[in-house]
Amino acid sequence: MEIVEGTITLKVPEGSKEVLLKNLYLSCDPFMRNLMNKPQGTETSSGLNYTSGSVSRNELLKFLIPDYKYGDLVWGLTKWEEYSLVPSSQIISKIQHTDGVPLSYYTGILGMPGVTAYAGLFEVGSLQKGERVFVSAASGAVGQLVGQFAKLTDCYVVGSAGSKDKVDLLKNKFGFDEGFNYKEEPDLNAALKRYFPEGIDVYFENVGGKTLDAVLLNMRVQGRIPACGMISQYNLTQPEGVTNLANIVYKKIRMQGFHFFDYVNLYPKFLEFVLSHLKEGKIVYVEDIAEGLENGPAALVGLFSGRNFGKQVLLVAPE
Amino acid sequence: MEIVEGTITLKVPEGSKEVLLKNLYLSCDPFMRNLMNKPQGTETSSGLNYTSGSVSRNELLKFLIPDYKYGDLVWGLTKWEEYSLVPSSQIISKIQHTDGVPLSYYTGILGMPGVTAYAGLFEVGSLQKGERVFVSAASGAVGQLVGQFAKLTDCYVVGSAGSKDKVDLLKNKFGFDEGFNYKEEPDLNAALKRYFPEGIDVYFENVGGKTLDAVLLNMRVQGRIPACGMISQYNLTQPEGVTNLANIVYKKIRMQGFHFFDYVNLYPKFLEFVLSHLKEGKIVYVEDIAEGLENGPAALVGLFSGRNFGKQVLLVAPE
C-alpha cells in the first residue's frame, strides 16, 4: 500500500449516474487482505480482486449529490481516499439514525461487521435459545457482537482472544460467560473441553487453523460453523493443515462460508434489532480509532498481529 | 473381529417386543470401521460405538415374528450374525417389491447407500439441474448412485476411483461424463482443473484428505459439499492435514456431514424414484458379493484398500 497525493475537482462528470462522497470514516477489515491476493482456483467470490494501480475498497460515510441530496449521510463501499466518486449501487444505506449514535458505528456495529455477526449467527448458524456458542477473535469487530447477540439469545458464550486485556473486555464489558487467551493455552483442545464439557453447538469461525482443528474435536452432533473469516491463515505461504475434518461426518456438522453482501436484505430488520438494544444499553461496542488516511496502512497491518483493541476504524475527516 | 460359534434357541422370549430375524444378506460399509474407534471428542453421532464383546451392527434382510408375520421380508439394523433378535425400531422397512429386484439390493441401491446418495445430493447438496458434480469413491456403494442420480438431473458428472477397471465402469456402465484413476494423477488439483475448467458446484465427499484439499481449490462460489464419509482417513493414526479450507470462506461453500438415518422419512419417495428408473433400465447397480459370514471380516477390510468392485455385500444364507 502506498499513499498517493493528487488534486481532484469535486464535481460529478456531465451525464454520470455516480455519486460524489466525502469519506469521513473508513473501516479496516481482515478480508481486505484477501483482496490483495492473486486469484486462487477457478473463481473468487466477490470479483473484488485487488489489482495493481487500484486502491483497497471499503465502507464509507460521506456527503453526496444526485438521487440523494447534498449533506445526506450514507454508508457503503468506496476506496481508501478522501473523496470518492461511486455508482449509487455501492451505497448500501442512507444513515437516518444519528442521535446518540457515533457515525463511526456505521463501519462497525451498524454496518458490515454488525450484519455479519447477525446473519452468521441467526441465518447461517441457525442459533437456538440456550445453545453453547464459541467465538474466536472475540474482541474484534464481529466477535464482540457475536458474543453479545448470543447472550441476548440466552446462550452460554465463550470467546478466545490474544491478550489478557482483551479477555477482560469479553468478560467484563461484553458479558461473555467465559473467555481465554489462546496464546497462553498450550493445548487448545483441553481449553475447549474445560469450557465446553458438553461440547459446542455453534462455533463462529473467524480464525481457522489450529483453533478450528481443536474446535472440530469439541463440536456437538449437528453443530454449525458459520465461517466468516480465517485470519490466522491469510498471511501464511503454506496454510496450516486441519486434521480433524472427519468430525464433520461423524457429528453431522454444517460448516458454511458466507459474506455480508448476501444478507444486505436483512439490514432493516437488523437495524431495528440492534438500535433498540443499543439505546437500552444492552449492547456496547468498542472501537479503536486511528486518525488520518496516512495511518491507514499501519492500522490494517496491525489487525494481523492483533494490535487493535476492538473494531479498527480510520477517521479520515472530522464530521 | 472374530468369528464366534454358539447355539441359540430360535424363540422370542416371553413378553418381549423384539423380532427374530434370519439374516440373508449383510452390508459391508466403510462407516462400520468408525464404530470400532474409541470415542473422540465429547460425543459421537450415533451412539453406536463398538465395545469389546459386542458385534458390529448392520443392515439385514430376514424373517420374523410379532407385529410382522412369519416370512415377511424386512431390512434394517442388525448385527453380523446368522439370526438376530432386534427391537422392531431397528427395522427400517418391510420389503414389498421383490419382482425382478434382487433381495441384496436392499443393502445397497434400495437401502442405506441409496438413500444416502439421494439425500446427500438433493437435500444436503441442493443439487440443481445442469450443475457440475464431482464424486470420489465413485464406483462404490454410494458413489455409483450419486453419479447416476446426477446424470438423471442433467448434470455434468465426473468421478474418481482407484483402478482403470473402475474408471471404465464409471464411463461405460454408469454413464458418467468422465472419470479418472486418482492413483495415476500426480497432481489432483491439475486433474480437477482439466475436468472442471469452470469449477465444481457439488462435490459428494466420500474420501477426505488430499482429494478434499484439491477439490476446495476447484469449487465454485456457493458450491456445496455433502460429506458422507472420509474413507481415506479412517485407518490413519494421524489424519492428513487439509490446507485449503479458507476457500470455504472465500467461495461461500457449504460443507455438511450427514447420516442416512436423518433422512429415513424420504424412503417412500426415494423408493418410488429409484424403482421406476430401475425398471426402465435407466439405473444400474454393481455389487460385489462375498459368501459366508466367515468371509465378512476380509470383505470389510477389503473396502479400505479398494478391493471391492461395486457395493460389497455379504451373503449369509440362501433366500
Automatic annotation (TrEMBL), chains A, B:
Residue ranges annotated for the Oxidoreductase N-terminal domain, each copy included: 15-91
Pfam families (UniProt xref): ADH_N_2, ADH_zinc_N
GO molecular function: 2-alkenal reductase [NAD(P)H] activity
Keyword field contains Oxidoreductase: yes
InterPro entries given in the database record: ADH-like_C, ADH_N_2, GroES-like_sf, MDR_fam, NAD(P)-bd_dom_sf
Keywords for this protein: Oxidoreductase
Domain Alcohol dehydrogenase-like C-terminal: 141-274
Name of this chain's protein: Enoyl reductase (ER) domain-containing protein
